[in-house]
Amino acid sequence: MSDARVGEGVPPPVITVVQRGQITEVAHRGDVAVVADGGRLAASVGDPDRLISLRSSVKPFTAVAVLAAADEAGLTLDDEMIALASASHAGADEHTAVAQRMVEAFGLNPAHLVHGRPQSSRGGSGELLAHMCSGQHLSLLLLAKARGFDPIGYDAFDHPVQRELRTVVGELLSVDLHAAPWGMDGCAIPTSAIPLRAAAEGARRWATPHDPLVPERYRALLERVRVAAVKNPRLISGAGSLDTDLIRGGEGLVVAKQGAEGLCLVGLPGYGIAVRTEDGDAAARSGRVATVAVLAAIGASVAAASSLEAHRIVNLADPRGGAALATVSPAASLSLLKVS
Fold it and tell me: What is the 3-state secondary structure (H, E, C) of 179-197?
């Protein structure tokens, strides 16, 4: 394992390009890891061991920690609540309604939420619940309640909520997160860095929760997270997003979760996929094109789903109307990808 960090080691290969007429305008570089049964590396582009930050792709796994604590305390989350705890949602009415139900069902105090703007400039609880990370943060308040922890400071690295998350997620991914590099996520809680292939293996386990490599005590809980996602794809993100459209097209067999700065995870029977665009993919176009191309290259049937039409090649529209001015498409490195 190289453990090269982003910007170190051999530069990643080009995975997508932006073509504007006769001009190849942008080349996005990135790494890809595809793991198969048993956690075996089945295919890769670039460095599958490059350290990447999990960001919001960790949410389905933190949801397992929440469910474990809630079950022990006799508290029950329904499928919609579990999906929202795993989500980076669009803040639509359907999302905020579930968030409000979580507040009411468990007696949570939105004033304890740390995400979004500084407390001094926040609006009411409605604004907090519309934040894309509200489901996860509410679930962390629930974890604190279930364990009897003080919810104040749940965002601190050494808070017992965060320590419990690192333990459970680390066991789910077979990575020691207590020793992993870390920083603060944009929603104000710690995020860890792990090898790309470990993230891919996490996605594979999420899609197949009863796999022997999943610790037995977490299998039923991870299955609940999987079922919640496939039953509620719109709650995981929102209309038109890659996550939602992959789950919709997967006929109950595919799970997906993106993380900020260009990370895309997909789990399906037999495989886990992690795609990371090195430049962070601020325009949210390279990662989705590359991810669908990887799925097609390994022969995954979901790659042909009609729900993914807008993600195979991204058209950059002419603001005046008419034909697209440019396209984002997969580079040759992805078409050559083969699983072994």
Answer: CCCEEECCCCCEEEEEEHH
